[in-house]
Predict the structure.
Amino acid sequence: MTTATIAINIALLPDAGMVARAKAMNARIRENYPESFALDEEHLVHITLGQAFVDGGEIAGIWRKVKSLAVRNDLRASSFDFHANGEMGTAGYDISLTPWLRETHAQVAAAVAPFSLPDGDENAFFTAPGESAVGERSVNYVKDFFRAYGGSRYNPHVTLGIGQREFLELLRNMHFEPFEFGVEALVICQLGDNGTCRRVLCCRRLAV
């Protein structure tokens, strides 16, 4: 494995309304568990369309295939939920899987397939100086994304942070009012640990 391999995320960046809600919930989670990552300029709020290990030299070719994808401006956060991992969990807003979002995910999968590498390691991820090494779960998630989490299993969401399971259960049991939001950009970013969108490699801003 060489450092030329990059873990990428082709993703949608939501509008300011969703970003503000996500950051507020992230701050609430971090009050209970400060070790969670903060959603900020280096950990972008996003909705994943597809993740893969690719050769860094192929980024331009991948971008040519995905940059003109049709993206609509009508997304809906349907619920707050979390995925448990022992006493911890990863929280997020579930996003309604509309026909256009399902189709865009499928187009991303087809575009990335010729470039996707079968494996990668922690060196493919973005880490800032002083940060801990990327965990095995993050590596395996990227490696298995389209097989295990794509197609009929695709579950669009906005990741909000990592927290203690008991606290996340309290948040999940609170009343949640679904809300609409828009999309500001389509990007390819380099992934960090825990599925974070760390470094934007290519970006297409959408008309609003």
